[in-house]
Structures are given as structure tokens and as C-alpha cells.
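Incident log, structure service

09:12 report received: a user says their structure output differs between two submissions of the same chain.
09:20 pulled the input from the user's history:
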Amino acid sequence: MARSRTEEATMQATGASFQPELIELMKTVLDDATAMLPEAKRTSATRAEIASHILACAAKGERDPVALKIAALLAVVDCTHYSHDISPERRAV
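09:34 re-ran on a clean worker, output below:
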């Protein structure tokens, strides 16, 4: 998986190094989090933003996939004010 500029900046800023198992977990969390957004919001920019938050949380030691997904989605929803576009079913993380 090619890294976006945001992901590379996060990696450089944190100096983090991740084990292959954690990388797979983060990919799954990224896919799951992106799938929860309205289709129109599933852009590469939003995906990069979500990935950045997942990487930042993982760099701080978070390994729980649910916690990673919630943190990433909340950051994107808070930053973009998309919460009114997300159905109640999709808000249940």
C-alpha cells in the first residue's frame, strides 16, 4: 500500500515503526472506518486524514481496533462537520 503525504508526514513526525501485524490491523481499521462514511465522503483526502489519525494513535501505543476506528472517525467528523450526513446506523462504531 503506497503511503500518502499525510501518512509519510505522520511517520516522520513520530518516528514510529510498526510490526507487520499492526500494519495489517491499521489497514483493516482504515477500510472499516472509511466504509462507515457516506459514499460521497469516501474520498482519497478523507481516507488519508483517517489514516493519519490511525497512525498517530498507533504511534502512541493504541492497539484496540475499535478505539483506533473511533478516534479516527471522530477526528474526521469533528474536523469536517459531516456528522449531519452520517446516518444513526453508521454512527454506531
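09:41 both user submissions now match this output. Likely a transient worker issue. Closing.
09:42 reviewer note: The chain is about 70% helix and 0% strand. Residues 6-13 have pLDDT under 50 and may be disordered.
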